[in-house]
Amino acid sequence: SCVGLRNLLQGLSFCVRYYFRHNHLQTTCLYSKIKPKKCHILDCSGSTCTQMTVPPGSILPWRFFSCKEGTKVPSKRKQNASITSSELSYKNLLKSEQENWNDISARYKAMTKRIKEKLEELHKYTFNSGSPRIRFGENVYFEENGCIFLSKADDADEGNVDILFSTEDLGFSDAFIQRIRISPDQRYMAISLKSENSEEATCIIVKLGHFPVVEKVIPNVFSFEWATNDVLYYTSQKNLKCQNVFMTTFSNQKHTKLVYTEQDARFFVDIYCTKDRHFLTINSNSKTTSEVWLVDCRHPFKLPALVQARTKGIIYHIEHRNDELYILTTYGEPAEYKLMKAPVASSGMENWQLVYALEEKTKLVDLEMFSDHCIMFLKNAGHLYLSVISFVSHSVQSIKLPTWACEFELESHPEHTTGTCYFQLTSPVHPPKHFAYSFKENNLIEQAVQEVPIITNCHTTRLLAKSKDETLVPITVFHNMNSKELHRKPLLVHVYGAYGIDLNMSFKEEKLMLIEEGWILAYCHVRGGGELGLSWHKDGCQHNKLKGLHDLKACIMLLHELGFSQPKYTALAAASAGGVLAGALCNTNPELIRAMVLQAPFVDVLNTMMKTHLPLTIEEQEEWGNPLADEKCMKYIKSYCPYQNIKTQCYPSVFITAYENDQRIPLTGILQYVQKLRKAALDHASRTSKKGNRIPNIILDIQTNGSHCDSSWEDSLNEVCSLYCTHPQQVG
């Protein structure tokens, strides 16, 4: 059993990857209209964007770069403040936790080295397999390892590429590339660079050509789009909020001006350019309501025009085709997404006409508009498929995608007249594969890519667990087909269940490694998430939050009943808001699991939602409720809040990773949770005298680098190796 426990605890880290507790997650639009906004490009660079000044006119010889005079990368000035006694106590506690973790992790250097080497080998084969491409006619822009490259679409010679941008050569080696936007005439490129220690990004505008030149640096930017060849719109971000839209020009008459300001603190603003580039949309979204303003790209200096005034409970997003607005909206019954249309000149809700409605319990993942077609990327019962709407024949065709696929990601191809839609498919144990759908040929093509030497004997099983109210809850299970006696194999259960967001099921090297070593991976798609549409989220938020807890319990019990592992070999994994359900289950049914791993967990819902001075509290009320204004809400939150319900009992072992610079989940709440949990576990051990009674190991790893949403490959690798180093006798 010691070996089994060692195997169990070796996977404690492989659970948690970036389920963001975003203030705009429900309705971000419209590069990715429904799902949380994915970056075009994510690289593996380091930690922090340091201040630098590039010498005027300097040329970096082998990258062919120059910077205009005065170009600087902004940095935040450290605030000098007197240290209070509470701050001193906090710092002492922080230091104590860091020393405790350093002592534990130092004992297992040999194991760390072995795991690191194995993960690095997998990473070497899979790193380049999933970089999305930005297609502009014959040109293809892509990013690898902090550099942006330009190649020709039909060029088979991989070495025949131009380097357009390098984070390292311009002194940004500690930042990663988050987003790329190319101007319509391809003369300018806007890039956002982000430090892992900050939520804010810096936008770099580069004038392309034989000698690319940095034209402008804009700090604290969230989203940006080119309205014309030399007019850029962008949103500014401050304290996790985006409420201002600016316009800046790069013609002879350079100027910047404020275009739009959102007054309601519950709303988050981003911008998007319609596929045909006729309009730039200013999208103001809360978690349940949205409003869109249009900027005519032919007249970018005119005031934005309102499409439809915000109406409580109605979300809508805009695309454009042939002088008509295509509106993706929750308007009408049932309150799921529908595609509607209206004339540009009379865009009010009274003129919206239905084009296509989704089937029941179907999740709309994304939508892409073309000149004669529209493609919807959908999920139904765990399977992915396309719905292709023809505006010429007025027909709808459904195309089922490979059964192993769990996630889509669109590749950007800005020309709406193209006859092909490019995208990637992936799963936790399948590296991204490139696919193309041809409208003319009406077929799906798997594009040839470099072979990745990975296992192919991973079996995918989809189950339905019956919850307390008899609602059927989907589970996706992965295991090695060669594994025998599954009831003796370690099981890693994943959960999230908030904000209408699906569990992250994109490829991770560590997931593949677990499968190779005999692990079972289970993903519980509980209510509160978005896997079965908007109603699935609504049925698990505010006064329905306990339904998600009941769903999770039912899922784990079903897995054990069907012979997938057993409680003493089961670990539960969650991140961010997923920590609410994981922490609640740890309080109500600790006997179902042996270990729990949390990353930047939200574990003190009640106290957080009582503090209106925190940047996200007001807008988060649509997800959790308002305990200050509603006593019933306060009691309900208190009934499931992980911190409030810790009691003297036998707990599973717990490993928590937290971040000093996390602006979304205050570190003080996590520290208090850990202290209270340790005391409860020790009190239980001291009151019971059973032979072999175990004391759970409750460990907190506080990362000085990284923020809530981001970490680099190197930091992720180190974290994986560190979490591998928990000894079974300590935790067991």
From TrEMBL:
Query: From what superkingdom does this record's organism come?
Result: Eukaryota
Q: Which one of the record's GO molecular function terms can you name?
A: serine-type endopeptidase activity
GO annotation, cellular component aspect = cytoskeleton; cytosol; Golgi apparatus
Q: Name one Pfam family in it.
A: Peptidase_S9
Q: Sorted alphabetically, which Gene3D superfamilies does this protein's record hold?
A: alpha/beta hydrolase, Prolyl oligopeptidase, N-terminal domain
InterPro entries, per the entry: AB_hydrolase_fold, Pept_S9A_N, Peptidase_S9_cat, Peptidase_S9A, Serine_Peptidase_S9A
Q: What is its EC number?
A: 3.4.21.-
GO annotation terms (biological process) = proteolysis
What does the UniProt function comment say about this protein?
Serine peptidase whose precise substrate specificity remains unclear. Does not cleave peptides after a arginine or lysine residue. Regulates trans-Golgi network morphology and sorting by regulating the membrane binding of the AP-1 complex. May play a role in the regulation of synaptic vesicle exocytosis.
Q: Which family does it belong to?
A: Belongs to the peptidase S9A family.
Listed name of the protein: Prolyl endopeptidase
The species this protein belongs to is Eudyptula minor (Little blue penguin)
Which gene name belongs to this protein? PREPL
